[in-house]
Amino acid sequence: FAKDEVNWAGVKITKEKVEPLEEHMEAIKTFPKPENLTDMKSYWALISQVAPYYSAQKEMLPFREVMKKGTKWYWDDILQRLFEESREMIAKKIKDGINRSGIGYIMTQKWCGCS
Question: What is the tens place of the pLDDT at every residue in 51-62?
Answer without folding.
Answer: 766 777 788 889
